[in-house]
Amino acid sequence: MAAAGAARTTTGISVSIARDPALVRTVRLVAAAVARRASHDEEFVEEVRLAVGEACALLVGETDESANGGPVEVTMRLEDRLRVAVSANGSVAAADPPTSDIDGVEPWALLRGLIEDFDISRAAGSTTLSMSWALA
Amino acid sequence: MDLSLETRHEGGHTIIEVGGEIDVYTAPKLRDKITELVGNGNYNLVIDMEKVDFLDSTGLGVLVGGLKKVRAHDGSMRLICNQERLLKIFRITGLAKVFAIHGSQADALAER
């Protein structure tokens, strides 16, 4: 029996992609679709799309060595909040390298600017970027 | 959607009309285009982003890199962007103060 007052069923979606930058867009599309289930506020949907894409791009990496590191796993759950976890084998520097031409415009700055609840954890050789949003 | 790049010259400026999504996959194409144009002596660039659907930090990095390239030749890079969702990204990252962002090609080309 559903809990009294439950407004929506829990949605859980997992996507696993190879470490190919071309596939990050696919994850963004899924993220936007999940966000749209929770809210029709397009600003919210856009924020989720951007944040999940950024997190995914960080873990996909652009180097050849990361291509052999296994897939990037993305799980999205609509519970009390929209919770997203993006994880992959290996570690990721929590700041841009000084050689980057991004000049202080770190993906991290964008992620932290976008999301109130953002966390990085490392365990057993893998890195997980977790984020969540309150649901209206 | 892939990235589309159309280039034309007008009034001493080189206008790159960008369409589609600028992300971790497509941004290198924009970077290569800017590098090619600067290499050929085009130092006053206008990047028209009116038809851009999506921009991530990789794309921002390419734009900052382009700005540095043209400035090294005393050139300029102006952006055309009037979409709130893209402008928000420039604001969050502090880049709204770094770039000259215009609402239309006419505005961008009118400024001296």
Please name the defining characteristics of this protein.
heterodimer, A: 136 residues, alpha+beta, Heat Shock Protein 90, five-stranded antiparallel sheet, 5 strands, B: 112 residues, alpha/beta, Transcription Regulator spoIIAA, five-stranded mixed sheet, 4 helices, 38% helix, globular
Structure overview:
The complex is a heterodimer of chains A (136) and B (112). Chain A is globular, with a radius of gyration of 15 Å. In chain A, 31% of the residues lie in helices and 29% in strands. In chain A, α1 (24-38) packs antiparallel against α2 (42-60). The two termini of chain A are 24 Å apart. Chain A contains three helices and five strands. Chain B is of the alpha/beta class and 112 residues long. Chain B has a five-stranded mixed sheet. Chain B has one domain: STAS domain (Transcription Regulator spoIIAA, 2-Layer Sandwich). Chain B has helices at residues 27-39, 57-71, 84-92, 105-110, and strands spanning 4-10, 13-22, 44-55, 76-80, 100-102. The mean pLDDT of chain B is 94. The chains are: A alpha+beta (136), B alpha/beta (112).
Map the helices and strands.
The complex is a heterodimer of chains A (136) and B (112).
Chain A: E1 11-17, H1 24-38, H2 42-60, E2 72-78, E3 81-89, H3 107-114, E4 117-123, E5 126-134
Antiparallel strand pairs in A: 1-2, 2-3, 3-5, 4-5
Chain B: E1 4-10, E2 13-22, H1 27-39, E3 44-55, H2 57-71, E4 76-80, H3 84-92, E5 100-102, H4 105-110
Parallel strand pairs in B: 2-3, 3-4, 4-5
Antiparallel strand pairs in B: 1-2
Helix pairs in contact in B: 1-2
